[in-house]
Fold this protein.
Amino acid sequence: MHQSPLPAGNATGRAWLGLAVLCLVVTATSIDVFVLLLALPEIAHDLHATAVEQLWITDVYGFMLVGFMITAGTLGDRIGHRRLLMTGGAVFATASVIAAFSKGPCCSSPPARCSGSPGRHSPRPPSA
């Protein structure tokens, strides 16, 4: 018979809070992909992008996501997943606020968005 490594019982408030934080991170990443897909026609028009270039615009996000998830997993093993979650959330929030209040295209350029990308992907759960 298979025994569970966790004791039987109800989850505590702290466990539910941890689950809510991790769900928020996954939801933010999903919304980010959805916003990119919604903005793709406007981006393609402004950049005069061909179909292949539009494909690259959408696929680069996934490539960066995978690269940062591998890096974040290793870094989380070294410094602790909770510390990495908090640091990544702070970096992402700071980059988002700067981009939201920017008056010009400087903070919405790819290098500026990439500065928020490590923060966005480092809080991901290690198994996601």
